Amino acid sequence: MNPVIRRRLPPSVRSLLTDIGPKEEWTDVEPDPETRDGVLLPSRGPASGEEAFLSPAKTQEDGSNTRSTAVCMLCKCKPSSYTCPRCNLHYCGLACYQSPDHSVCSEKFYKESVLQELKEMGKTESEGRIKMQEILVGLRQKAERTDGGMESVLKDAGILSDDTEEGEGEAEEKVQVVELLSRLAELQQSGEASETEIEAILRKLEEIGGGEALQGDIDEGAEAAEGEVDLADRLSGLDVDKLSEEELWEVLNSEEKEKFMDLIKGGALSGLVTLWKPWWEEHEDGGKALVEVLEEEVSKLERDNSTTVDEEDKTSKEVVQNQSKAAAKRQVKRAKGEETSKGRPTNPSVPKVSAKIPKLSSLCANPSPLICYGLVNALFGYSFTLCLFNNDTDSLMFEFCDMILALSEALNSNRVFNSVQEALSCGEALILDGGYLDKEDPLAPTRAVEAVAHIMTGRDRKDATGYGLSAFSQLRAVLSKARSALSKEGEEGAKRQKYFLASKKCEFLQAWVLDNADGIRRLAIELWNEHSKRESVRNSMEQAKAVVEESLKKEKRKKNSKLIEELS
């Protein structure tokens, strides 16, 4: 009967009704019959009460039915037989476990298993070595306490026999080998080993072994070579580029970690890195000589401008424009790999100039005369960051871009600077506030100021705009590459927009440099003057500091000198 109709019947009638349909689950034991008012009724099972007919079907407590009916969550066609211990996902077999949908969990599991195995291998090797050292040192200490020395200890241990069949020379060799090895283990355990003593012990062991290298030979050079081989074997099955710093650190054993930390503390790690030489320091006529030439040209140009009439002003502007166009053509030739002048090849370390640089008139009809100071601020951040990263713009691409935007408000915001001093001081303040200044290299900002002066000077007096175009071309290329590697959503989308705006500003500054060759020359002279002023101030401060330190030393000597001395 329909359960809904059954529920509407009175209880007295409902108790007389009997289901004649087949049950979903039949019990093996036949239920006892019931009698009511002399009428024999079949039993309705253990359920008693009005809600027994509406109770839901119970599943088996062991969950075997659920497991057999659950479908694989990966392929969604086969029944699941296993559960992933990491993410509790039900799957049917190995193919689904290794599928791309489950690769994040499975690859992490394999990586952790390999790293754990490598850790255990390193532990067992080091533990075995330490245990052997303890055994040898124990033998040596026991031999010192016994009367017969090492020979009696080895006889008690059963290594030497009392039989006369064994030659005396062979027994003496065994005793000598154990004594040498125990002494070597004692030196290693105490940490007071000297290279000469270790070499003498190893030489004796080699002589006893007939010139063949013994298994216990632990020469420092050989040990280092073995360490390198072991590390190479450990890293052979791993993708080093995808491993994090923590995972790489766990691959190293305790000895390798100690060596690495000693290299950092002693400053020897920096000696392994080749320092990059900035390309902008190369000038055809020499840096100072070229600055003097630029000063003469600019002073001559100013005198001509003060004495000429309006018509001559027009012609001079045309000459300047022609010179800037000629410089632009030379830079395009340099980008294509041609020679910049007769008989002089291009410098391969200088970044190539962008092939497409728009005209300034197409970007801005009336550019501000203060643009040159924003250019100085951008180049200051660029040169400081490039030197700090040792010209590594590939592996540290995002860090390079973020740091340049953090140090240059001309690229990161719409700030306008009114002088060279303001543009440089802003960059120096951001270096100090952001914690980018290395305490061991406090002159890095001073070198960045000099770098901007070098870039504005150019390679030679005929090509003053070349280095500026190359610098902004490299900056544009790195920003565009970093932008293309980011997605358009979330935080990466916001960073992508910042990189895009900064690259467009670099493009605008390139166009300004192409159209203002004479302005670049004046800016170079102003930068060199500012650099010399800062150098003179720094030198005077260092001299004053030296005088103060010397006076403090004299006062300390006076205090330490005895005012009253007892005469004997």
Keywords:
568 residues, mainly alpha, two-stranded antiparallel ribbon, two-stranded antiparallel sheet, 23 helices, flat
Write up this protein.
This protein has helices spanning 3-8, 11-14, 64-69, 94-97, 103-145, 150-156, 168-190, 195-208, 220-236, 245-251, 254-266, 268-271, 287-307, 310-335, 360-363, 371-388, 397-407, 409-412, 420-433, 444-457, 466-484, 490-515, 517-560; strands at residues 34-36, 39-41, 82-83, 90-91. The protein is 61% helix and 2% strand. The longest helix is centred in the last third of the chain and has 44 residues, at 517-560. A two-stranded antiparallel ribbon has the order 1-2. A two-stranded antiparallel sheet has the order 3-4. Helix 7 runs antiparallel to helix 8, helix 13 crosses helix 23 (517-560) and helix 16 (371-388) crosses helix 20. 20% of the residues are buried.
Topology readout:
Blueprint: H1 3-8, H2 11-14, E1 34-36, E2 39-41, H3 64-69, E3 82-83, E4 90-91, H4 94-97, H5 103-145, H6 150-156, H7 168-190, H8 195-208, H9 220-236, H10 245-251, H11 254-266, H12 268-271, H13 287-307, H14 310-335, H15 360-363, H16 371-388, H17 397-407, H18 409-412, H19 420-433, H20 444-457, H21 466-484, H22 490-515, H23 517-560
